[in-house]
């Protein structure tokens, strides 16, 4: 379980996150919704130790993450696929995957077999240069590179951002497939209706504060969520 308690994170004088507490149950797919600037990316970066909080506590399976440096995080089985994460265009599919395996937490061969099993097209295209993949395949490769770590906890920041609607559908299909794996996922998304369709639980942030939480049915019923994110 990922536990965040009373987390406050600032950029200079500006508090991007204030007194945020949330829990991600092990094995769940938990989403974080919120408009631009709500603090979602800041939260993920703080979990993976790229940002130092002013106050608060972050623990993964009881282990205090604030005692670790950013470089130690992958070794704890935590993968962070940042916003705008893209492939290395001139490298092959296999080379891209192997970069993800660099700080592997598990066995590289079994991670590769797992990733190929999840995304067979990446095995078929192993020697293909990444820039010649379709947009959806490139995003699949960016996600697969994170999975090469064999993570227990996967932090994903807006994997559908900037993709054509047809490709967004593919990305969510992939995310849905990951739910059957033994992996805990914290997914940040602006595409609320799709994110709600794959989630077990969700949180909504506004201006750095938690405003609503619940399971997808409860969130869909919330007036604030309907108006701001679902357009009705
Ligand atoms: P988006 O959906 O637009 O990515 P977000 O919810 O991920 O938004 P954050 O990127 O966490 O939001 O930003 C939270 C606030 O912190 C915003 O007001 C943003 O302008 C500010 N901010 C983010 N990064 C920095 C930075 N490096 N320096 C100063 N302010 C920052």
Question: Layout of helices and strands, plus pairs?
Answer:
Elements: E1 2-11, E2 14-24, E3 29-33, H1 40-47, E4 55-60, E5 63-64, E6 78-81, H2 93-100, H3 108-118, H4 120-124, H5 135-147, E7 153-157, H6 165-178, E8 184-188, H7 192-198, E9 201-206, E10 209-214, H8 216-221, H9 223-230
Parallel strand pairs: 3-8, 3-9, 6-7, 7-8
Antiparallel strand pairs: 1-2, 1-4, 4-5, 9-10
Helix pairs in contact: 2-5, 5-6
Quickly describe the structure.
This protein has 232 residues and is of the alpha/beta class. 34% of the residues lie in helices and 26% in strands.
Explain this structure:
This protein has nine helices and ten strands. It has a six-stranded mixed beta sheet with strand order 6-7-8-3-9-10, with helices on both faces. Strands 2-1-4-5 form a four-stranded antiparallel beta sheet, covered by helices on one side. The chain has 232 residues and is α/β, with parallel strands linked by helices. Helix content is 34%, strand content 26%. The chain has helices at 40-47, 93-100, 108-118, 120-124, 135-147, 165-178, 192-198, 216-221, 223-230, and strands spanning 2-11, 14-24, 29-33, 55-60, 63-64, 78-81, 153-157, 184-188, 201-206, 209-214. It has two domains: 2-77 and 152-230, P-loop containing nucleotide triphosphate hydrolases (Rossmann fold, 3-Layer(aba) Sandwich); 86-150, no CATH class. It binds adenosine-5'-triphosphate. Adenosine-5'-triphosphate binds at residues 11, 14, 16, 34, 36-42, 190.
How many strands, what sense, and barrel or not for the largest sheet?
6 strands, mixed
Any guess at the CATH architecture of the largest domain?
3-Layer(aba) Sandwich
CATH topology tier name of the largest domain: Rossmann fold
| Annotation field: number of helices | 9
How many domain units?
2
Low-confidence stretches: none
Find the structural class using helix and strand composition. alpha/beta
How many runs of DSSP E, i.e. beta strands? 10
- Helical amount among residues, as a percent range? 25-40%
Strand content: 25-35%
Bound molecules: adenosine-5'-triphosphate
Strand line-up in the sheet with most strands: 6-7-8-3-9-10
Shape: globular
What's the CATH class of the largest domain, please? Alpha Beta
| Cα-to-Cα separation, first versus last residue | 34 Å
What is the CATH homologous superfamily assignment of the largest domain? Answer: P-loop containing nucleotide triphosphate hydrolases
Overall pLDDT score: 90
Q: What is the radius of gyration computed over CA atoms, rounded to a whole number of angstroms?
A: 17 Å
Q: Write the element-wise H/E pattern from the N-terminal end onward.
A: EEEHEEEHHHHEHEHEEHH
